[in-house]
């Protein structure tokens, strides 16, 4: 029950819907149990006594009772559904909010498809139980209690025979639950894996096609698909065994009742109508008890789903905001003091003893081989990850002193592959600052050298982009991303390989756009090309997480170190560099 208790905050505030639904359920069940009584009266008092004139009254009475039952059923159903859907509405929102605050560390290991299946199928699994499962459980209990009450009224020995079957049924139900719950957990997990496969395949379709791995992908999908099928079949086999056993026990009970009940009628110890009513009542007990399997099934699914939802809701938020975090203006002074970073415990350090000072408006170049730690440095400033040792300061304060929103609002990123949403160009540009006026958006686009190509599109700023910015070239996407960064007017700007994916001509255009954006902002430029770094106030050259060389371009080209080596390799670019310098 732990799972349900932990998720109580989502459904308990709406208990009034549940209670209303149960209130009407009470009527539904009570009226259901009246049927056999009407049957008994019709047989004993009307048919056997040959008082046929009473039939119209009984018929009208029966009709009115049924009408009442129909009305009660409607409210019972509707309120139950209202309870479930309102509760999971809150649950879905909470999950989504949690996904927004979870740290990069969490997403490093998360699989999108699996998270999607948690947010959809698992939420539905949970809803089914709280919408219908709980009231089904109450219905079963009420039906059994009411039916037994009427049975005891008619004949105590026959009622006791019926009750004797219950422990056997209970054992079967218990055993069933023990086996079916892990089976359902298996189904949920394997469905998550199946989703992950599909999602990764669609996202990585370019790679799949360019490497001609379609057959391999189909094979991998078949494996996941087969795993899902196996898991499902396992559950089905548990189900298939369960029902006949339940029915067999029920039928033995009926045979005993028939034998003993018939004996009582022959001896005039029981009326014929009561025996007929008894048979209806037995199935009012057996039916729901067998149905208990369905409810347990729903319960097991909901429990398995609830566990998976809790895994997300209770996931550790590695980066937490301090209670007394401040919301201050940031001018962009970035200081690293002896900073060390390890991503995964016991793994190699990604950064070792990094120290530098970037006054507001300065430009810091980060150079070094891939994996040397350039990106890692920039990810510590907005607290995407936390330093293991040392201090990361912004305007002289540790980054943890600031509210996360404040800190991140002041840091703009232009990445090698910037993410564009499948909406209009306008919405993409003003994503970080939705209140921005049309003039400001156009101004940002102009400064990012994007306005001209946007205006050449048939719908201009209203052009819809496909998922991940399809329909635009790499350089165009990049300039939209630059315009987006301008819109948030950040004091700190990170350009991570921002021009590596484009041709020379586009690079020059982007460089021009970037120059405009960098004005008055502390800028970190991560680049492999010397041409992008040479104007930096300080260039840090990294090797395996350590700063091995630092200085201006002019100093470093005479240093006889790694920077000069890269410079010499890119010698053929030298003329171009000279050109851009002038
Ligand atoms: N999220 C992460 N989880 C675990 N290890 C990571 C993570 N991000 C980076 N690393 C590791 O940290 C080291 C530094 O990576 P980083 O991305 O900072 O290098 P980089 O110099 O920016 O490389 P590139 O030029 O390829 O972008 C690498 O060994 C990398 O494998």
TrEMBL record:
Domain ABC transporter: residue ranges: 334-569
One of the Pfam families matching this protein, by short name: ABC_membrane
A GO cellular component annotation in the UniProt record: plasma membrane
Keywords: ATP-binding, Cell membrane, Membrane, Nucleotide-binding, Transmembrane, Transmembrane helix, Transport
GO molecular function terms listed in the Swiss-Prot or TrEMBL record: ABC-type oligopeptide transporter activity; ATP binding; ATP hydrolysis activity
Principal location class: membrane
Annotated TM spans: 21-43, 55-75, 126-146, 152-174, 248-266, 272-299
Topology class, membrane: Multi-pass membrane protein
InterPro entries named in the record: AAA+_ATPase, ABC1_TM_dom, ABC1_TM_sf, ABC_transporter-like_ATP-bd, ABC_transporter-like_CS, P-loop_NTPase, Type_1_exporter
Locations listed in the record: Cell membrane
Ranges of residues in domain ABC transmembrane type-1: 19-301
Protein name: ATP-binding cassette, subfamily B/ATP-binding cassette, subfamily B, MsbA
Protein source organism: Lentibacillus persicus
């Amino acid at each position: 029950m732990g799972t349900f208790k932990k998720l109580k905050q989502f459904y308990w505030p709406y208990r009034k819907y549940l209670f209303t639904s149960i209130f009407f359920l009470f009527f539904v069940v009570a009226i259901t149990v009246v049927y056999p009584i009407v049957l008994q009266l019709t047989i004993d008092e009307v048919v056997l006594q040959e008082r046929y004139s009473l039939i119209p009254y009984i018929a009208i009475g029966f009709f009115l009772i049924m009408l009442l039952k129909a009305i009660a059923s409607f409210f019972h159903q509707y309120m139950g559904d209202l309870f479930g859907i309102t509760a999971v509405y809150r649950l879905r929102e909470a999950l989504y909010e949690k996904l927004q605050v979870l740290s990069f560390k969490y997403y490093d290991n998360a699989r999108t498809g699996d998270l999607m299946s948690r947010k959809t199928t698992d939420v539905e699994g949970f809803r089914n139980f709280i919408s219908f499962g709980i009231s089904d459980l109450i219905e079963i209990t009420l039906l059994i209690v009411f039916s037994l009450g009427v049975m005891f009224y008619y004949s105590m020995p026959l009622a006791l025979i019926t009750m004797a079957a219950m422990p056997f049924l209970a054992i079967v139900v218990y055993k069933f639950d023990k086996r079916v719950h892990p089976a359902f957990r298996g189904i949920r997990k394997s469905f998550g894996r199946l989703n992950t496969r599909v999602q990764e395949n669609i996202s990585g379709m370019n790679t799949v096609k360019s490497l001609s791995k379609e057959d391999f992908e189909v094979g991998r999908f078949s494996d996941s698909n087969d795993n899902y099928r196996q898991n499902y079949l396992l559950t089905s086999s548990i189900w298939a065994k369960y029902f006949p056993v339940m029915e067999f026990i029920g039928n033995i009970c009926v045979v005993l009742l028939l034998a003993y009940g018939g004996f009582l009628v022959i001896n005039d110890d029981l009326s014929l109508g009561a025996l007929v009513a008894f048979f209806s009542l037995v199935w009012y007990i057996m039916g729901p008890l067998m149905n208990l399997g369905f409810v347990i099934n729903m319960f097991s699914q909901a429990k398995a789903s609830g566990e998976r939802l809790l895994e997300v809701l209770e996931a550790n938020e590695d980066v937490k905001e301090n209670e007394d975090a401040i919301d201050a203006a940031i001018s962009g002074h970035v200081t690293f003091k002896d900073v060390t970073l390890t991503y995964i415990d016991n793994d190699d350090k990604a950064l070792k003893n990094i120290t530098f000072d970037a006054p507001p408006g300065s430009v810091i170049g980060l150079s070094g081989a891939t994996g040397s730690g350039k990106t890692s440095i920039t990810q510590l400033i907005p607290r995407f990850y936390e330093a293991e040792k040392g201090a990361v300061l912004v305007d002289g304060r540790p980054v943890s002193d600031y509210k996360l929103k404040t800190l991140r609002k002041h840091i703009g990123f232009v990445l090698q592959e910037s993410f564009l949403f499948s909406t209009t160009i306008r919405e993409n540009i003003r994503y970080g600052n939705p209140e921005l006026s049309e003039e400001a958006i156009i101004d940002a686009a102009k400064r990012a050298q994007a306005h001209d190509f946007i205006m050449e599109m048939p719908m201009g700023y209203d052009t819809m982009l496909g998922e991940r910015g399809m329909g635009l070239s790499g350089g165009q996407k990049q300039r939209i991303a630059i315009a987006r960064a301008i819109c948030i007017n950040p004091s700190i700007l990170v350009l991570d390989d921002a021009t590596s994916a484009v041709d020379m001509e586009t690079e020059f255009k982007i460089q021009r756009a970037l120059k405009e954006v960098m004005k008055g902002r502390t800028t970190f430029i991560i680049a492999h090309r010397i041409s992008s770094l040479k104007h930096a106030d300080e260039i840090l050259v990294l090797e395996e997480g350590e700063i091995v060389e630092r200085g201006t371009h002019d100093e470093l080209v005479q240093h006889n170190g790694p920077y000069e080596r890269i410079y010499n390799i890119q010698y053929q670019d030298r003329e171009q560099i000279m050109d851009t310098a002038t």
